[in-house]
Amino acid sequence: xxxxxxxLAGVGLDTALGEPxxxxxxxxxxxxxxxxEQRFNGGGRGWRSHGITAWCLAVLPPxxxxxxxxxxxxxxxxxxxxxxxxxxxxxxLGEHALPVAQALRLGDLSLARxxxxxxxxxxxxxxxxxxxxxxxxxxxxxxxxxxxxxALFWFLVGGAPGVVLYRLSNTLDAMWGYRNARxxxxxxxxxxxxxxxxxxxxxxxxxxxxxxxxxxxxxxxxWQQAPHWDSPNAGPVxxxxxxxxxxALGGPAEYHGEVHARPLLGEGPPPRARDIERALNLxxxxxxxxLALLLAWGLWGA
Length: 302
Known about the structure:
mainly alpha, two-stranded antiparallel ribbon, cell membrane
């Protein structure tokens, strides 16, 4: 019951307050990660062993500290609530996605491109309205998995230490997990660890999306299309999400001046502004479903 209440409190804080505008611990963690990368990967010369060392130095001390705090009664419960709250990005997801849909509805393509550029790493300057809606929908589905459901999963599995370990690992993957000359070797550990931590949550998210949408189509797209996607975790999530919504995602996209011929995901018409909102509603509905199942489990065991 304590875990249930902490989960509800953490989600409630995120829903009410969103991410802290100042003093977010992940900002300080990002600075630490930059210093560690400069120390162990100067000039892109770091090897896999350097990346493993840097990952351990960045992630393990905060995780162990939170684990120690969580052993205290009242203080431990508060630490758990705050850890989940700071790891979640549910309200932030809507704060980024809805303005993109709004700009598209108003016909302001230039503004929509700029706004979706804050959500994705691809080049958005030449996207048409459908391309903006595609980028926004894909980002909502994938970030819903990474920033919401996976954090909930690891909190339920490992409490405060579990969610801190996951969130910091995911942050390092976003900073170091690139396949380029600078990070190919050094960032290998961060990328592989994040893949491992997301493996089970991503498939639970794909199933969640499927159950809340066009189930048969979502499952078929997951089964047939996900294996062709570069990421072993984003593939199931976005294929199932696109199928659940009955839209076509994926396809060519430009990253850092290079066009990537990505496979198609889903089935149906190209996405529009409303599909960004539908993708967001899929995430919201999934969170409610997870919380309802958690509540039922808590009441059953009470």
